[in-house]
């Protein structure tokens, strides 16, 4: 195929990678190199097989993970009900700032590997390289993390099956869903999304009913737990406003990790029909989804379970440590905990499949930008980057390390390190949004214009920088070093 370049010496990029998108405008000529057309490209090009329904449900389901069902328990214990609510509310605004900035860029240029391609295009190729490989590592390692989580959740029913068997089943089936192509993956994610949305909506309603005395015990709770044990926990027994602020800040950082994955709709843009219309619709609803699923859940959890409830620190990893299940058990309801555990299992399994998908697309995007070996760019007849998929799934085998106590400690360290890769990617999105404006591109020609820009991007940049710098603040407290 003959390649066309609007600028024979692309800005800050040498050599220029192949073009990823169509309909070149005068503004797009200001962005350095132009990638190759998605639908008419070489064997590295993927097909647009995701429709609007699939993309919308994927974006909805992507906001609901195991962190929502299980992670809120430790957050409530660390921060108290008000610390939990404020932490998730403010973190939700940060995530929205990232999504809005990303939505503008994706609809302007729906390219492969957008989250790694844009930093290289608008800031510097070195940033694109570092963001891309950090992001890929984050997904690759988290495949093993989610497989492990699903296996622990499955063990809730105490079936006479070794964890190694559960790990094998979840790992192989999650890979199989992706091997059959993006259309198959999209359909499965739609099913998972419907289950998760129905479950979390039902849990919020059940929590409100229990709080108002509608359970078998008919106990009216109201705001009792806001008075005793209180709105905030004094973090690490530090007295006064400092202890309360640190309690909030610990929840704020935990919430950041719970929200990771909400940006993955951008990775599917290059495989979506008419992304300039479908992506904005998915992006625009992010704020309302976050408000309903996370903020409403944080509020309900804070009024039905006290933060000093011992079971919040059970550490089992299954539904028994979920604050929703704890509230239901306190109300003497028998069957619901098993149903919730099944939903948590679906959530963990969905996350496993999603990590494999996202990791393979990030690696494929790096190939398209000539930042990874070309062998990982080849796709099969279904449009799946098969080599990238295999390499991205293989780290999932590290889940077997959890069968040994000593190895599981190393594995946990690897997963904790990988989590920062997602935060770093969010940070780069806000920085790239500023770089896009520095190129003098007319925002009035965007298919989607986010509100409150560029101030939202500045806000996200400042808050994410603070998270990166202060994520390990606990090590400086007494007794931790």
TrEMBL record:
Residues 55-478 form the Amino acid permease/ SLC12A domain. It is found in: Membrane. GO terms for cellular component: membrane. It comes from the Eukaryota. The chain crosses the membrane at residues 55-76, 82-102, 135-157, 163-181, 188-210, 246-269, 290-307, 386-403, 410-436, 456-477. Residues 1-43 are annotated as: Disordered. Keywords: Membrane, Transmembrane, Transmembrane helix. Residues 19-40 have a biased composition (Basic and acidic residues). Pfam families: AA_permease. GO terms for molecular function: amino acid transmembrane transporter activity. It is a multi-pass membrane protein. Its main location: membrane. InterPro entries: AA-permease/SLC12A_dom (IPR004841), APC_YAT (IPR050524). This is Amino acid permease/ SLC12A domain-containing protein. It comes from Puccinia striiformis.
